[in-house]
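Reopening this ticket.

The earlier resolution said the output was attached, but the attachment link was broken on my side. Pasting everything inline this time so it's all in one place.
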Amino acid sequence: MDYKKLIITTGAAVIGVFGLSLTTQASTSNQYGYYQAKKTVKVPLYGTSQSVKIKKNTIVPGYTFQDAFRTQKSIKLNLSSLSYQYRKSWPKIAKNIDWQQSGATEQAVSFKAVTAPQQMLFKTVSTLPLTGMFYVGNRANSKGTTTLKSRLVITTDGYIERYYDTYPNVSQKPVATAKISKVQRKGLTTYLYYPNHIKGVKDQHVAKTGKFQYRLTIKNLNKSTQTKLKNADVASERYAVYSFGGQHYFTLMNQVDF
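Inline output:
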């Protein structure tokens, strides 16, 4: 398996819509970024003829470019930043299909660049790999994998999900999920509130009823780790380490805004 190719095709990010508008028009000088659909569109899955629906106002990480063989500006989207709750309305996707990203489509005009909504842990997008995805531990091993099974994703449509994955794998269905109700920030610490406990996550029960019963404390530890990789396209990879309820999770370093 080509490790570098796999991590580049995985994305996830971290933006949601909480019933109020938190996005504004952003500069389009950077071709990587967060894009909001101006209308409902269908986009192809990468390498297939199957298409899925992206609803109006949906926000996803994307990449726009001008293809010499196309007349209109094209866009690619990282679809794994959308929650399972959102994706389960799509037609059934075969296991061998790369559902994590769209193919190039001449529909860039149907999307607008936006700034990161409030719960976004990363304010900018410089590349798309693993946007919004965090794997348990401090780093990958020399094979570019892990044996520890837990992945957390903060999705573009406002969920936090836990998957039973080993880095850098991406399964389609989470083992636990919650709809984020409130976001607070204090320095390098982010607090997410939601109505139900996420199994396997060290959140805190802070209220008896309502939408804010559980709180997850996320700390940017301002710490990086590095792994020398064997038989990979790159000699080494750097990771940023975060604390989710006191448990360490890592993500690719090139995403992090220090």
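Reporter confirms the inline version is readable. Residues 124-255 form one domain. Residues 1-30 have pLDDT under 50 and may be disordered.
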